[in-house]
Amino acid sequence: MEQEIQTVRERLAASDEQPLAMVQSFGCQLNMTDGEKLKWLLLSMGYGLTEEPEQADLILLNTCAVREHAEDRVFGHLGQLKPYKQKKPGLIIGLCGCMTAEEPVREKLKASYPYVNLVVGTGALERLPAMLLEILEGKKHSVDATVQSAPSEELSQVRSCSFKASVPIMYGCNNFCTYCIVPYVRGRERSRDPKVIEQQVRELVSQGCKEILLLGQNVNSYGKDLSDGIRFPELLRRLDAIEGEYWIRFMSSHPKDATPELIDVICDSRHVEKHLHLPVQSGSDSILHAMNRCYSVEKYLETVRYARSRVPDFALTTDIIVGFPNETDEEFSATLGLLEQVGYDNVYSFIYSPRSGTKAAQIADHTPAQVKTARMQQLLAQQRETSTRLYRRFLGRTMQVLFEGVSRKGEPWLTGKSTEGVIVEAKGDPSRIGTFADVHIEETKNWAVLGTILD
After folding, report:
1. What's the pLDDT band for 284 if we cut at 50, 70, 90?
2. Taken in order 188, 147, 236, 160, is the CA torsion positive or negative?
3. β-pairing, 170-171 with 164-168?
4. d(CA 65, CA 70)
5. Are 124 and 145 in contact (CB under 8 A)?
6. CA neighbours closer than 13 Å in the CB half-sphere of residue 379
7. Residues 448, 421 contacting (CB under 8 angstroms)
8. Separation CA 447–CA 394 (nearest Å)
9. How high is the pLDDT of residue 152?
10. What phi and psi values does residue 270 have, to the nearest 5 degrees?
11. Does residue 426 contact residue 453 with C-beta atoms inside 8 Å?
């Protein structure tokens, strides 16, 4: 890789002006991290970075394949790039990310978007310099749709934030939920070396990073493919032992791997967030079985009960899919009942949409769209009441907050999150962004709490 980087750099150095590259990432945090690696590669090869397509000599779209709507957006962007290519024939256009793993996508590119020069798979990021060199030497197309290999540890990142950083700890997924395309486009689970992860986190902390987000399609199955016996709770313990002022967050978790040991680490740690996002998806055993989620409602509730035995108001959030194929009124009611029983601080809910290539997409669905929409509205209304009620427990408390930016209200309001994952807003100087502060909570909403910064 180093040789190809140097060759591209020398070739670009012969240009009268520094060529510019644009990277646009779609989708999840892992995609955003891959986009940061692509930017690092481009800078290493001698490109400058731009966010304006009309200025770019190279445009990479780093894609998401979780929903077909996301793919449609990408094809729409590709269509919008055609005039730029016509105006600047030397413009290089590339497609990266999860969409590249799908053969129908690659066939569609050939048929309808022949001006796309590069197709770079999620497991082929380090091959970008070699592929780009082929295009610079006159080849029209270069394709490597590799999925299964993990990105090279030689790849660094151009981080978009000075005080928050994401660190992938594993790639791929073995769960094969029937509605999800991820195992097909990201491959099977591959865990990174814990020593490499620990060193990376140490460096980030030493650089002043305040929030480190550990990433994986299923972070709490980390280490199952390693021979050293280190699993996710032990990895968290090792990272928690690093001295410094910082938080560790992680996503996404699977309930089947949420053990009492993991709850204990969260509760007993100094730096790990005091909150768990635990996607249940449905409160019905029959729907969970159809989703291939590999746990029952009762098994899920065992985890909740253990967490609440350690901390009575342990902060939990979840994901819900409304309207899975042929979901009945009774099955949906069971979901509402579970939400009431658990008491989540927040719920991220989605109306099911079929994803071609998954098993669920093959099920004939007889539930009308308007029924699903009505159910979603009912769920949202119930959760608003629940969040409003639960957030009142923070009234009068002092919460540690990492301020992330100016609130949508505008200055002087700042917004951030507490270690419980709760949005907190308070009046303060923008110089506080990227720092921790204690906030006395004086008001609650159904989406956030408001307070006064204590100096």
Report:
1. very high
2. negative
3. unpaired
4. 6
5. yes
6. 32
7. no
8. 13
9. 73
10. -90, -30
11. yes
pLDDT band at 68 (very low <50, low <70, confident <90, very high): confident
What contacts 75, CB < 8 A, 6 or more positions away?
108, 113
422 closest CA partner among 319, 313, 304, 315: 315
Task: List, edge to edge, every strand of the sheet that includes 247-251.
Answer: 164-168, 211-215, 247-251
Give per-residue burial for 153-191: e unless 16+ CB within 10 Å, then b. eebebbbeeebbbbbbbbbbbebebbbbbbbbbbbebbb
β pairing state of 436-444 and 449-454: antiparallel
pTM exceeds 0.90: yes
Separation between Cα atoms, residue 394 and residue 415, nearest integer Å: 16
Phi, psi for 85 (deg, rounded to 5): -65, -40
DSSP class of residue 192? P
> Do 259 and 223 form a contact (C-beta atoms < 8 A)?
no
Least confidently predicted of 163-167, 334-338, 408-412: 408-412
Per the prediction, the chain carries an average pLDDT of: 94
Cβ within 8 Å of residue 74, ≥6 positions away:
26, 61, 63, 64, 95, 99
Angle subtended at Cα 186 by Cα 160 and Cα 273, rounded to the nearest 5 degrees? 50
The values of phi and psi at residue 305, to 5°, are -65, -40
Given a cut of 70, whether residue 149 has pLDDT beyond it is no
Place of tokens 């569609």: 108
Write the DSSP string, 26-89. -SSHHHHHHHHHHHHHHHHTT-EE-S-GGG-SEEEEEE--SSHHHHHHHHHHHHHHHHHHHH-T
Q: How far is CA 299 from CA 22, 285, 324, in A?
A: 46, 10, 21
Count CB-CB contacts under 10 A for residue 329: 10
Q: What is the DSSP letter of 305?
A: H
Indicate the helix (H) or strand (E) that contains 433.
none
